[in-house]
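To: structure subgroup
Subject: Chain for Friday's discussion

All,

I'm putting the inputs and outputs inline so they're searchable in the archive.
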Amino acid sequence: MYEQMETGPLYDKVVRSMSTYRSVAARMQNTKASTQGKLDRRLESLSEQIAEQLSELSGNELQALTCWKDGIMAGAYEVDHDGITSKPYVSIRKIERWDEEYDVAEMKASMQADDERDSELKETDAAKLRAFLSMTDDF
């Protein structure tokens, strides 16, 4: 069982930016020194952009994301570089599932009651259908 949170277009924009950050960080591990400098500057600019976007999100949207942490100043956020580049990759969108617990006897009684109601409805529907089909056309 899980609960789905309502998110807006800013949330999707942050997720795309974080995904780009992750792919640039992954590319940086296997590049030459000259390319690493370019990618490092790109990561810095992406990090600043994501920090700005995170500060625009609502509290619920922030709770629906992973791979971010509180910044140095109050109300400021930043990318959790270690979290976003850890392997195996962690989902950027937070996914929490839990098992729904229920009483087996109660669930069985509920299902039997539903079956009885369904059979009664089927009988009344069948009677209505027979009555409709037995009508003669007066046209």
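Points worth raising on Friday:
Helices lie at 9-28, 33-56, 59-63, 81-85, 104-134.
Residues 104-134 form the longest helix (31 residues).

D.
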